[in-house]
Write a structure and sequence with these properties.
Layout (H helix, E strand, L loop, with lengths): L7 E5 L7 H14 L2 E9 L9 H29 L3 E8 L1 H9 L4 E4 L6 H7 L2 H8 L4 E3 L8
Parallel strand pairs: 1-2, 1-4, 2-3, 4-5
Length: about 150
């Protein structure tokens, strides 16, 4: 495998512990290839699309924006420590669709399984599964060590 093929790496993150192993792997890949990383946080519109009060929508959106800034900031901080340039991006939409759309601009997507578990994962399907099927570049899915024996 020629590492120089991986110059632009997309790392989707939700800021959870479940994505930290993927962040480390993606940054390591960028460091080895001399590439750069874009940390992507997707504000999932379904998280605030049906509230009863307009003020609740604004509060939910503000909270998700802060969460996105924190999640991408973590990747940027780790990138600085590793000497890897990191661009932070916070976009809105359905996470799998946004990641797939963005994938055409990158050489690889390195992602965790994101923090969805239980009934939420069952109902919405795995974001990683959808990205694997739809991405326009190679996808590396890094399982979190959390919960593994």
């Amino acid at each position: 495998m020629d590492m120089s093929e991986f110059q632009r790496i997309l790392i989707p993150t939700d800021g959870s512990e479940f994505t930290k192993d993927a962040v480390e792997r993606g940054l390591s890949l960028a460091a080895m290839s001399g590439g750069s990383v874009t940390a992507l946080y997707v504000i999932d519109q379904s998280a605030y699309s049906n509230p009863h009060v307009d003020a609740a929508v604004a509060n939910a959106h503000d909270t998700l924006e802060r969460e996105g800034a924190c999640a991408t900031g973590y990747v940027a901080d780790r990138g600085r420590e590793m000497g890897v340039p990191v661009e932070a991006k916070v976009l809105e939409g359905t996470p799998s669709k946004v990641i797939i759309r963005e994938s055409k601009e990158y050489d690889a997507v390195v992602m965790g399984t994101l923090g969805r578990t239980g009934i939420s994962k069952l109902l919405m399907g795995s974001v990683a599964d959808k990205v694997i099927r739809g991405a326009e570049c190679p996808v590396m899915v890094v399982r979190s060590r959390i919960g593994r024996g």
